[in-house]
Write a structure and sequence with these properties.
This protein is an alpha/beta fold. The protein has a domain of about 150 residues. It contains 18 helices and 21 strands. The strands form five sheets. It has an eleven-stranded mixed β-sheet with strand order 13-2-12-11-1-8-4-5-6-7-21, sandwiched between helices. Strand 16 and strand 17 form a beta hairpin. Helix 2 crosses helix 8 and helix 7 packs parallel to helix 8. The longest helix is centred in the middle third of the chain and has 34 residues. The radius of gyration is 23 Å and the shape is globular. The N terminus is likely disordered. Bound molecules: 2-acetamido-2-deoxy-beta-D-glucopyranose (3 copies). One 2-acetamido-2-deoxy-beta-D-glucopyranose binds next to strand 9.
Length: about 600
């Protein structure tokens, strides 16, 4: 039970309203189609190249303009979404060991208790197609990820090589879809499976997780994405938007980003090439989305299906002098598209209230008719369908977003670069009246931006200029960086359990000066690439659990050393001059040979679990 009066009132309404929405006229629970892209930005206008979403989901749906990924990196962001918990509570904090990776997710037992299993318990069939998370690969594919009735996953390291699509269906020997483009294979599989689901008569939850517009990562480096050949001529001359923070002449940033030189012409050309190829790579995805929506429409299922569109995190191209990549606390990397259309969702409306990926699990469970008290106790987020409820039910005072990171910060160019120990804690405050970004880096440097006056996050406000504001944001970060459950949803109430403070504006009252000045500063002992409790103390409240009760902590501490196997199937060309149906694509496909399956697996045999 959530202890706050305002919340229990909201909850009662939510449960009633959700239960009413859960079964539509036909008596069948609504389906959920989750369209989940990889590295797709919101702020660099990538949605312009996806009219399936803007014309057919957004116009008829509800847009969350201030939706944030709580960690700007694929694997930890996906685990946070699927478990409904911040990365500091899953301790899957990076794409590889020791911080994270697929094997850490499995070893910690979190794969036995996550979103697909919860939806199955609610009567849904569950399907996943495409990229799940990093280091699910050709060396550990054979135990299919748990929870899915149908799991057809891309295998590492080929996930990021657009013309070497290799999938494993339900743990079967991997199939190499030679001479096909990855997005075309994904589309053919998605179309075929959607027909199967519609014919099944059971309510279904289906995630289609494209890799586009992610960079191509292969043995020689990080490259702009490789679109299907039929799209490679599109948008000639298209350049990365010259936002105010694109390659700024003056750089006022802490940590390694602060040391970056101005981008030279070749770096700018790479940034522009990346931008144009991302727009091209999205065209295959756009065709797929249109076709899936057409199928739902023709089958009369569109109005009984929630369509959810998002991305694991955002992307920057030249902002703050970083040529290409994610992994930073700034807005381009963390503010992501999040749009829902479906039964009972208002059409063409939007909200500025902040939300984030840990809110998605409770929201989808709400769509499936799972009452709040039946949801897992460890969820850190809130049901976002409250956001379109009438005043009085819709929350008014949500304003904090937790954002965090541990590990290497990669510059995604051919030559790479970046820095280890790109570790920081961030809190964002988003309200109608004000907005701030406050970060504390593992170097103990801090940065504070007024995101209303300085939306491009260029000019930090020094401590001396706003000591009261700094003291409040330090306290808020002290709470959010280790929050769980209610302290994530209502951090101001955690700081003020007697009530009276539910926003930053309330907390700025000078009568609280002594309290805030008495609290310790957020600190890191050293720059580590993973979460170690001792390294990140102090916390507020003092005793925090980091979700340890809800996962097998012992199984992953220390021993875990997974790695991605070598590329054994070489790239043989560029494909996709025309889109072909699955039968034709399958005719060319073959299974991987024993030789192609020899890899350097992770250190642990997942079969023993
Ligand atoms: C950060 O500050 C804390 C508290 O003052 C100190 O103990 C710690 O050594 C500092 N860490 C670094 C990386 O400078
Ligand atoms: C998180 O994982 C790291 C690396 O395996 C481990 O050393 C650490 O103790 C874990 N932290 C928590 C809070 O479980
Ligand atoms: C890696 O990808 C780049 C960009 O598409 C391509 O030019 C290069 O040939 C690829 N490398 C290998 C080893 O296939």
């Amino acid at each position: 039970m959530r202890p706050f009066l305002s919340f229990s009132v909201i909850s009662t309404f939510t449960v009633l309203a959700t239960a009413a929405a859960a079964v539509t006229a036909g008596g069948k629970k609504p389906n959920i189609l989750f369209l989940f892209n990889d590295d797709q930005d919101l702020l660099l206008d990538s949605l312009k190249y996806l009219d399936s979403v803007t014309e057919r989901v957004q116009k008829d749906g509800f847009t969350f303009e201030n939706h944030y990924a709580t960690i700007s990196l694929c694997c930890p962001s996906r685990v946070a979404l699927l478990r409904g918990q911040h990365a500091h509570n899953t301790n899957v904090t990076y794409v590889s060991a020791p911080g994270g990776g697929y094997e850490k997710f499995v070893l910690s037992g979190q794969d036995k208790d996550y979103l697909p299993q919860w939806l199955k318990a609610a009567g849904y069939s569950t399907s996943y197609l495409g990229k799940l998370m990093n280091q699910y690969g050709y060396y550990n594919y054979d135990i299919a990820p748990k929870g899915w009735d149908h799991f057809d996953g891309l295998l590492d390291p080929y996930t990021y090589i657009y013309n070497t699509p290799i999938f494993s269906l339900n743990g079967a020997r991997p199939r190499y879809y030679q001479r096909s483009h990855q997005t075309d294979v994904l589309r053919a599989k998605a179309v075929s499976h959607l027909h199967t689901l519609i014919n099944s008569g059971q309510p279904w939850y289906f995630t289609v997780a494209a890799v586009a517009p992610h960079q191509q990562f292969n043995e020689t480096g990080q490259w702009p994405p490789v679109p299907a050949t039929r799209h490679q001529h599109l948008f000639p001359g298209l350049k990365a938007p010259r936002t105010k923070n694109f390659n700024p002449a003056v750089q006022r940033k802490p940590s390694w980003v602060g040391q970056l030189p101005v981008m030279d012409q070749s770096a700018i050309d790479f940034a522009d090439d990346t931008y144009r190829r991302r727009a091209q790579a999205l065209q295959g995805v756009n065709e797929m989305f249109h076709e899936l929506l057409d199928i739902l429409e023709a089958a009369g299922e569109l109005e009984n299906t929630y369509i959810v569109f998002s991305s694991d995190h955002g992307y920057h191209i030249g902002q703050h002098r970083v040529v290409a990549g994610k992994m930073l606390p700034y807005k381009e990397d963390t503010n992501v598209p999040f749009i829902i259309r479906g039964p009972g969702v208002p059409r063409g409306q939007k909200t500025q209230l902040p939300s984030n990926h840990v809110d998605i699990a409770p929201t989808l469970l709400g769509f499936a008719g799972v009452a709040e008290e039946k949801q897992p106790v460890f969820l850190d987020g809130r049901d976002l369908s409250d956001y379109w409820k009438p005043a009085g039910i819709a929350p008014e005072k949500v304003e904090t977003v937790n954002i965090e990171f541990w590990g290497f910060g990669l510059i995604e160019t051919a030559t790479g670069g970046g820095q280890s120990g790109n570790t920081y804690k961030t809190v964002r405050v988003v309200s109608k009246e004000y907005g701030y970004l406050y970060s504390h880096w593992c170097t103990n440097e801090t940065e504070l931006y007024d995101t209303v006056a300085d939306p491009y996050e260029l000019t930090p406000i020094p401590v001396e200029a706003a000591p009261r504001l700094h003291s409040r944001l330090n306290a808020l970060l002290l709470t959010t960086k280790s929050c769980e459950r209610d302290s994530c949803r209502n951090p101001w109430s955690t700081l003020h359990p007697d009530g009276g403070v539910s926003t930053l504006a309330d907390a700025l009252d000078p009568k609280f000066d002594a309290f805030y000045e008495s609290l310790p500063r957020v600190a890191f002992r050293e720059c580590l690439n993973y979460l170690l409790k001792e390294n990140e103390a102090p916390f507020y409240p003092k005793n925090v659990e980091f979700g340890e009760k809800y996962r097998d902590k012992e199984a992953t501490d220390g021993l875990f050393t997974g790695s991605t196997g070598p590329v054994r199937v070489p790239e043989v060309g560029n494909f996709g001059d025309k889109y072909e149906p699955l039968e034709v694509i399958e005719e060319r496909a073959r299974c991987l040979t024993d030789d192609e399956l020899v890899g350097t697996a992770g250190s642990v045999d997942l079969r023993s679990l």
